[in-house]
Design brief:
By secondary structure, the protein is α/β, with parallel strands linked by helices. 28% of the residues lie in helices and 21% in strands. Ligand 16Z binds next to loops.
Length: 449
């Protein structure tokens, strides 16, 4: 292996309580909220189809003009407890909020720049209200932090001169101070979700990314940091030059999920996929007709898909400039919540079952459990759900809501579950009871004698 100073600091999955908690949550709510929510993708009467949180660049708006949006930020409808209740009802176990997105506007009263919530008509500490409200609902809060900062004069996309080095060093000190401030002033925060770290300026300063991670973990032992922060000695990101994952979980899955057949490597580490409801809108956009809007069912399947591969699913909401959510988002929360109310136990605390993906849907398994969950999305014409078990395993029974389905052994380690449900109106959960084939054989024999 290549000797590295700023590469992965450990290999294998963390087994401490904080990481087990993060892993068991499985389902998180992403919230993108900032000045971009005020124009919502429309500028001077023109609608820009690109991501609404990028309107400043897509509409080529001068920084001073964009930054003056701060004086309009006054979300009258903002009610952190109502947001937290909606997330609770949806079945989310954690929430990740943009403390500062690329625009550089800070949702907390930071000491390190005036470009923050305390200098808006709203004044109140949005982060504190959100952390308190979500924690009160038993939901953990994580902080998204963009290192890329369009507002800060010392930000550099690349380091091309001694002046760049001096300025960028000041910038890194600024970012480090903000991170320490966030980790210190909001003590219940569990994880940092870094973004805006793809530019050469960061890739040339891998040392800072490791220091930032180590500082956060010294201020808050157990703190969790995503792989997106880190750059190693050679500017490699997410996986270092020895192909070792940096940070505590892989966060490269943005608006995409690993393939359940080809990408099984992800089941060896912690990872999280983040997802937009429209094709590509993280911040609030006034006009959702500009792209495909994912249905509640599409998004529910992604949650199940992520869980089935041992990963977390972070579903994004983009509140508008007044602090309200779109009807589509409310409907999604209500739809998924209704399903999770009944079937949360096959998501929370569950992960990769270790069996081969089948066409009808996904397997999940609670750690070490003898029960394997089948979440059926696509009922085959035959009504026969194929299950291929691994190793010394026998299926004893298949039950859905108290009703037993016939388990037919069709070959070694292969079964058909006779799925007699006629019309499927929602994804169905069938719980398989398994036992060791060796032991079960006796049990099976007993049943026959
Ligand atoms: C250039 O392509 C990008 C750049 C940044 C993003 C940002 C989004 O604004 C959102 O915050 C997402 C998590 N992040 C990767 C998305 C696509």
């Amino acid at each position: 292996p290549v000797p590295l100073r700023y590469g992965a600091q450990y290999t294998g999955m963390r087994t401490d309580e904080a990481m087990q908690q993060w892993r068991s949550h499985r389902f998180g709510q992403f919230i993108h909220w900032g000045l971009y929510a005020i124009p919502g993708g429309v500028w001077n009467g023109k609608t820009y189809n690109y991501a609404a949180e990028f309107l400043k660049s897509s509409a080529r708006i001068p920084t001073a003009t964009w930054d003056s949006l701060m004086y309009q930020f006054n979300p009258r409808e903002f009610d952190a407890r109502a947001w937290a209740k909606m997330a609770k009802q949806m079945g989310a176990r954690y929430m990740t909020i943009t403390t500062k997105h690329h625009e550089g506007f800070c949702l907390w009263p930071t000491k390190f720049t005036d470009f923050n919530i305390s200098n808006t008509p709203f004044r109140r500490d949005i982060l504190k209200e959100l952390v308190d409200a979500y924690n009160a609902e038993g939901i953990d809060v994580n902080f998204y932090y963009s290192v890329l900062d369009w507002h800060h004069p010392d930000w550099r996309y690349d380091i091309k001169s001694p002046e760049d080095s001096v300025a960028f060093r000041r910038f890194l000190d600024f970012a480090g101070n903000q991170l320490k401030e966030l980790a210190t002033n909001y003590p219940t925060v569990k994880a940092f979700w870094f973004d805006g770290t793809w530019d050469s300026s960061i890739k040339k300063n891998g040392w800072w990314t490791l220091e930032a991670e180590q500082m956060l973990k010294s201020v808050r032992p157990g703190m969790i940091v995503n792989s997106r922060l880190r750059a190693d000695d050679f500017g490699k990101r997410h996986f270092d030059s020895n192909n070792q994952l940096m940070g505590d979980y892989e966060s490269g899955y943005e608006r995409r999920l690993p393939n359940p057949v080809k990408d099984l490597q992800v089941t060896k580490w912690d990872w999280e996929a983040c997802m937009t409801v429209p094709e590509n809108q993280w911040g609030y956009h006034r006009d959702w007709t500009v792209s495909h809007v994912k249905s509640p069912l599409e998004l529910l399947e992604m949650l199940v898909h992520a869980t089935s591969m041992g990963g977390n699913f972070l579903l994004n909401f983009g509140p508008d400039g007044n602090g309200g959510f779109r009807n589509e988002e409310r409907h999604i929360a209500q739809f998924i919540g209704k399903w999770m109310e009944k079937n949360g136990p096959v998501i929370w605390d569950c992960g990769y079952a270790g069996w081969e993906k089948q066409d009808w849907g996904y397997f999940t398994r609670k750690n070490g459990s003898a029960h394997v969950n089948m979440i059926v999305f696509n009922k085959p014409v035959s009504g026969l759900l194929k299950v291929k078990v691994k190793g010394d395993v026998k299926i004893l029974s298949a039950k859905a809501g108290g009703k037993a389905y016939r388990v037919e052994e069709i070959a070694k380690n292969e079964y058909f579950i006779h799925f007699t449900d006629r019309k499927m109106t929602e994804p169905r959960v069938i719980v398989l009871e398994t036992a060791k084939a060796s032991e079960a054989a006796d049990k099976y024999q007993d049943a026959r004698t």
